[in-house]
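Final paragraph of the annual report: two paired records, presented back to back.
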Amino acid sequence: MESNTYVKGALLLTLAGIVSKILSAGYRIPLQNLTGDVGFYIYQQVYPIVGIALVLALYGFPTAVSKLSAESEELSYKHFALPIFIILMGICGIASVLLYVNATTLASWVGDENLVTPYKITSIVFLFVPFSALLRGIFQGKSDMKPTAYSQVGEQLIRVAIIITGAFMVAIYGWDIYVVGSLAGIAAIAGAFVAIIILLVFIKQYRHVPKLDKAIPWRYYVKTILTFGLIASINHMILLIIQFADATTIVSGLVAHGYSSQEAMEAKGVFDRGQPLIQIGAVFGSAFGLALIPQVSRNVTTKQFHEQINRGVSLSFYLAVGATVGIIFLFPEVNKLLYQDNQGDTSLMVLMIAILLSAMAITSCSILQGMGFLKRTALIIVGSFMIKWAANYILVPLLGITGSAIGTIVSLLGLVIVSFLELKRNVVGIRLRKHVNWKALLIACLSMIVFLIAVDLIASTETFSRFELLLYVLFVSFTGGIIYFLLLVRYQAFSDKELSMLPFGSRLLRNK
């Protein structure tokens, strides 16, 4: 019964995470449409910092608190909640003060002095993290996932509403474009406040807490929060730290490439168009595969666990390859549909390879983390960030935004290779090369590509209205996806057991 509750809670959190990530990626499209590439650039210069605070509040610190909560039979305010809150506030308070004090230095570093105020506003977000992280951790430690799921979606809805409303004001009333950067911080603060309110509604059931008279294990609390809070959260920051590297290097690199400051900002905004697509692709590419690997840390030594890992990794690979190939061949139409022009097509098509690599990186790093290799996984991810930063520093002055796209691919490829080598070293029998049906994958990919090219040759999208282009993209992507999936099934890329777990799997099995 307890295990069933745990699985249901984990599925609820996964669903809430997918909804939130889709919202997080989706709102950036109207944001760019309303404020232009410069407005989008400004937002993306601030977002990685906001994103780090959100990850700490949603994944990092709650994971640590939930571990402590699960280990504590009685949750005393004096001996549990208060000391943990003090530790969290100490860590987040230091981060907030450092960001506020160094806002001018950071703005100068990224090459835009007008970002000082947005950075200072964003620093306040960290002061809300201890409240939501503590409450979420307490609930999760007692296997109650509803409060975290509801607060996550509520927080994201408020953020999206404020950002889109502010973008409308910028577009309609001509507000200063740098208001968009401040909105990133303001929306995050408002969202965090709403999340705390939602969590407090659920906390009523924990009002009766006994008073215990025992020593507070400060050292153990600090060690757990640092290990499981900060280090473990890095796995959820893979795409964020890539964006942070872009925020600190692209504009200055483009200026060295020969752009004016204004042209560099616009080009950075064009490059950032790829981020929502990568995020959505990576979510779908990794979420379903990871869903097949439940309770990783509890089954490390079993044969069933190894089979689940191979099944999850191969499914992630199939989905991510299909999404990547499809978006690359459809990208000119997608770019025009979402962003109303075709700026940056070539560079962004190169960048779309990141969908496959990020999905595989998230999958492999999540498995490693679930197996307990927290520090090792964190070091691998930090190494990927350093590769990305160095690649941008070298390639952007030479190749412009295409250099940054290549830098992203190189850094993620390195992350995938190293993380899979670690998996291969620690999991008996994991062999992606042997568990992927390459013949089926090649036939499915080529057939989808032929279909996409044929439709593109027949249809003249130049004469389409935006609504007609939407219908075209939806039809072609859906039909191409169906062709890809059915051919994978036809050429036995999936086992009967894997098919039975998919929607309409029983029907597919009957028709094999």
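The closing record of the year follows.
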Amino acid sequence: MSTTTPSPRVALVTGGSGGIGQAVVERLVTDGYAVAVHYAGNQAKADALVKKVEASGHSALAVGGDVADEEAMRAAFDRTEAAFGGIDVVVNTAGVMLLSPVADLDLDDLDRMHRTNIRGTFVVSQQAARRLRPGGALINFSTSVTRAKFPSYAGYAASKAAVEAMSLILARELRGRDITVNAVAPGPTATPLFLNGKDEQTVDNLAKAVPLERLGTPEDIAETVAFLAGPARWVNGQVIFTNGGLA
């Protein structure tokens, strides 16, 4: 009697060369996934992560493109399917955060956030809805600021509130497909995106605002993603606030 080794589950991680994205890639690889590491501008960083994954004996692929460009994302999904045979999990960590009070926000910055965070999430979610295999999961990214309501975050939080809305509706649109759709809403997390432009006092104050009295780590967020990607088949159409109790 012959036996065959089951193929690994396959994940595509947008923003996979970034802080949280890289932690997600590394965690999913540890769980046995083959992973497509998406990058927007830093191919060298994505390639280095792919080499690291391959050196550990696992499979990975770098795919590039603007998440808001439907042709680029169609090509990224095509390359992932061609390399690994299909896609089971899509994790959409790609995002832009530009902070300013409402009265002072440059509307070009607002448009940039909306293009990446709203349109980009929609484009990737659309491809995921068309392509994920049964038993699959789409995990989008929101922010705990939709609850915490920090001043200067209005434009960013507004874009992420839209992500929550589309994710929860898509979960219901995929009825009968055995595909879950959830959003992760991190609290203050020590990534370059979060720390950029903040002085030490601001960072300390944000850490102390959390009952656990520390910033989150990318690995903290990746833990939630791994749960939603695999074992959490009864968690669907939810926003998971991974924030140490901030709000």
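The chain has nine helices and seven strands. This concludes the annual technical report; the extension proposal builds directly on these records.
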